[in-house]
Amino acid sequence: MTPNHFVELSTLPSGVLRKVIDAAHAMKAAGRTPTTVAAGKTLAMLFEKPSTRTRFSFDMAMRELGGGTIVAAGSEMQLSRGESLSDTARVMSRYVDAVMIRMLDHDGLKEFAEHATVPVINGLTRDSHPCQIVADLVTVEERLGPLPERTIAWVGDGNNVARTFIEAAGPLGFQVRFATPDAYAVPADIIAAARANGITVTTHTSAADAVAGADVVVTDTWVSMGDADAQERHRLLAPFQVNEALMAKALPSAIFLHCLPAHRNEEVTDAVMDGPQSAVFDEAENRVHAQKAILAYAFGAI
Ligand code: CP
Annotated active-site positions, please? Predict the structure, then answer.
């Protein structure tokens, strides 16, 4: 039987994303008292790239579910000396009950999942960040209510987090707008595929146009892990800074999200990060509740 992987939102069985978000709300409401969902289970966490939120939130999530974790950097493993992903997946599946991986190579993570006999969770690749989007959508719902017909305006780099919003928009019924420079736009084939699936997604070259009347304004760092063109990115992305003037174009009830880490006064000003519309620290906290729900799905408990 195929394990309950959590690798791409777009390939989850129908209804699973909604179920995971509902479970995250319920787990948050129940408080941080430990449960037995993962009693006796161990999650391996394999990081090829740095992490603060993903690492700590998964570790806390496993503790609160009654299980434990093993953390390793890819550079410490035989992977760094050429052992194949498939062999590593087969071996790790003999030791632990689930594996969370952060690696830039999306196809590599999928290859690992194909060969693993335990659930594999995507902790961020160059293409997607599904765990982050679960936490973001939990935050939107707790601040604003139901998602259908909400408008989420992404401003800045059309990166992995931006692209993952599209994967959730179809199942959950919200609309997405992207304001990006052409050089860092969400790839046209992804936009076309979303529209073919009935998702309302618009693209803009003006941040103000994308944000006008939006419920949620989201951005991310201009230079993500693996990006080599920092100077050019800063030049082209400067007009896409989220500041008070831009937030004033969204609905008065709009919230601001950022998956963090933020580069203050680059992609977002201090005034917005620390202002009344910012939900970024609730969003960061919600990573724990989201990870607990994702792990409960992986372990077949929801
Ligand atoms: N947002 C996020 O994934 O944070 P980390 O890189 O700190 O894990």
Answer: 102, 129, 132, 220, 259, 287
